[in-house]
Amino acid sequence: MKFKPNQTRTYGREGFKKRAACLCFRSEEEDEVVLLVSSSRYPDQWIVPGGGMEPEEEPGGAAVREVYEEAGVKGKLGRLLGVFEQNQDRKHRTYVYVLTVTEILEDWEDSVNIGRKREWFKVEDAIKVLQCHKPVHAEYLEKLKLGCSPTNGNSTVPSLPDNNGLFVTAAQTSGLPSGIR
Fold first, then answer.
1. pLDDT per residue over 11-33, tens digit each?
2. From CA 146, how far away is CA 141, in angstroms rounded?
């Protein structure tokens, strides 16, 4: 597992660990392929790049930093897709953004330090891969497919307080067929 010296975990008022992540795409259409990275804990499993927010860090800045560290890509930060909660075991609250990749580094921090890999997946394939071991990450892509297209008028990235109403929990999507979640 990746460990950063002097790492400070930040928590919201309700005890949730504050995290940020990006769905990374090659184009602004958000429909072709998405970039996943290998897990630091389980290198044979794929995840959406993201991680903990640092003190005083804004969610968008944290998302861009995490993608740079974990996936070795830079790009144009797009809209906030939503804020996702994982209650059961970890109590995470993750701000998930869309990022259009403009630069791919040959070597990056996590590839050198822990041997992390990255790979482009078709969106449907990424959902299947993520549903096995990271169902919350699969929910990010399922929400994207639900019609949250880049042309829906939600192109600005708001700064959200801890108590905003844009949360998506597993309970809100469980029981629905995966095609309509």
1. 676 778 899 999 999 988 887 89
2. 9
What is the tens place of the pLDDT at every residue in 43-53? 999 999 999 99
69 is known as an active-site residue: yes
Catalytic residue among 69, 70, 85, 139: 69
Q: Which are the contacts of 92, defined by CB distance < 8 A and separation ≥ 6?
A: 16, 17, 19, 85, 86, 136
pLDDT above 60 for 94 = yes
Report the C-alpha gap between 55 and 51 in whole angstroms: 13
**Residue appearing with tokens 């970890």:** 90
d(Cα 142, Cα 126) in Å, to the nearest integer?
10
State which CATH number among 3.90.79.10, 3.30.70.560, 1.10.3720.10, 2.60.40.1930 fits the domain covering 17-148: 3.90.79.10
